[in-house]
């Protein structure tokens, strides 16, 4: 295979910590590991933000309700000029903000094959932030955006079916993976648990993710309070940050808040938990579900996204029918009450994702982009996108 030049465009990128940023970085690393040249286009994150040699930084503005994140401002002309000077073989657009729209416009004008990533359920966010009447409009807006691309990449079969039913064109499944070297049950840390005042036999519930309205966190709180009826000494650790954290800390002073954790520290936090409580209904995937399973932590989540793909109900934790809040609480309580069941689930959870490899995601992503390049040359984008979906499955 010849060395390709790819461009990845994203409104968010590390050191920002969120599922999209980390997924995009993983895709970039996957392409680089295969010998390709990758340009990253992203908003400038601060006045001191200096671009690496492979980066193109654009102006950005703060994103409301998301402290620390920025939207890239429109930059069609700048991208078009940059890509005329150094033309990418293909472009991947990860986010639907103004920068993402600009990238798709520039790619279309230059006839560069482009794929988009469907990472965020903005239609469901409308409901979570009290604007349910805008759900349909948000879905239409996303459909218009993604249909400007030659393919839209999604992580699950469930999402392929949903988007196709909503008239999204060229939907391609690109499965995710998890770093099972980093996320490992062996990273369980008794000293860390001791810092939290948690003994070896104390039940420790854990939540990892953004602390915000769209994560349905009131349900996690209700579930934990019911768990305390069978395990009065149980504790609840929260890893992450967000606009709902301050009120949660104020209302529940017995909860332990650890803030944002990265790398090996995050892996230790995960592995030191006994039950991962994940009540979100707004994920396109939910990378944290795979990280919990890889860490050997039984998981209770709703049955969609990563849970639908990898979590077997009763074996690795519990996969609850979406919106069955009573069922969610009941299964949390049952698993919390049964030490032997949790111990059996720990080993099974690890095995559920043990075969997933980030290198395979990089290979599949590369194959999808190369199919789009070949399809553009042959004038058969639709047919080859379907072939790419089969190969990435």
Written account of the structure:
The chain is α/β, with parallel strands linked by helices and 393 residues long. The chain has 16 helices and 15 strands. The protein has helices at 19-33, 76-85, 98-110, 122-128, 135-146, 157-165, 190-195, 217-230, 245-251, 263-271, 287-294, 305-310, 325-337, 339-353, 358-378, 381-392; strands spanning 5-9, 37-43, 55-58, 60-62, 70-72, 90-93, 114-117, 151-154, 171-173, 204-208, 235-239, 256-259, 275-278, 299-302, 317-320. The strands form 3 sheets. It has a 7-stranded parallel β-sheet, with helices on both faces. It has a 6-stranded parallel β-sheet with strand order 12-11-10-13-14-15, sandwiched between helices. The protein has a two-stranded antiparallel sheet with strand order 4-5. Helix 2 (76-85) crosses helix 3, helix 8 (217-230) runs parallel beside helix 13 (325-337) and helix 11 (287-294) crosses helix 14 (339-353). The longest helix is centred in the C-terminal third of the chain and has 21 residues, at 358-378. Mean pLDDT is 90; it is low at 383-393.
């Amino acid at each position: 295979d010849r060395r390709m030049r790819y461009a990845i465009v994203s409104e968010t990128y590390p050191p920002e910590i969120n599922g999209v940023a980390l997924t995009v970085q993983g895709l970039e690393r996957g392409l680089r590991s295969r010998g390709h040249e990758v340009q990253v286009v992203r908003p400038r994150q601060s006045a001191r933000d200096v671009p690496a040699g492979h980066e193109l930084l654009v102006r950005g503005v703060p994103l409301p309700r998301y402290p620390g994140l920025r939207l890239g401002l429109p930059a069609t002309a700048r991208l078009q000029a940059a890509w005329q000077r150094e033309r990418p073989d293909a472009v991947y657009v990860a986010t639907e903000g103004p920068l993402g729209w600009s990238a798709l416009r520039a790619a279309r004008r230059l006839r560069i094959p482009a794929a988009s990533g469907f990472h965020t359920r903005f239609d469901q966010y409308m409901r979570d932030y009290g604007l349910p009447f805008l759900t349909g409009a948000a879905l239409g807006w996303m459909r218009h955006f993604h249909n400007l691309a030659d393919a839209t990449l999604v992580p699950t079969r469930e999402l392929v079916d949903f988007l196709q039913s909503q008239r999204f064109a060229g939907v391609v499944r690109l499965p995710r993976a998890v770093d099972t070297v980093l996320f490992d049950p062996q990273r369980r840390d008794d000293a860390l648990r001791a810092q939290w005042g948690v003994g070896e036999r104390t039940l420790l519930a854990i939540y990892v993710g953004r602390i915000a309205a769209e994560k349905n966190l009131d349900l996690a709180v209700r579930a934990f309070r019911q768990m305390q009826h069978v395990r009065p000494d149980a504790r609840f650790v929260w890893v992450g940050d967000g606009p709902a954290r301050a009120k949660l800390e104020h209302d529940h002073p017995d909860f332990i808040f650890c803030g944002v954790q990265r790398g090996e520290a995050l892996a230790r936090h995960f592995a030191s938990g006994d039950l991962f409580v994940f009540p979100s209904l707004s994920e396109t995937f939910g990378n944290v579900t795979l990280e919990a399973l890889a860490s050997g932590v039984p998981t209770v989540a709703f049955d969609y996204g990563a849970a639908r793909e990898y979590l077997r109900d009763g074996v690795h934790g519990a996969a609850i029918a979406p919106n069955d809040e009573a069922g969610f609480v009941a299964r949390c309580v049952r698993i919390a009450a049964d030490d032997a069941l949790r111990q059996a689930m720990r080993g099974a959870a690890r095995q559920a994702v043990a075969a997933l490899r980030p290198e395979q995601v990089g290979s599949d992503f590369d194959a999808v982009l190369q199919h789009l390049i070949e399809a553009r040359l042959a004038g058969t984008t639709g047919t080859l996108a379907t072939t790419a979906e089969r190969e990435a499955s």
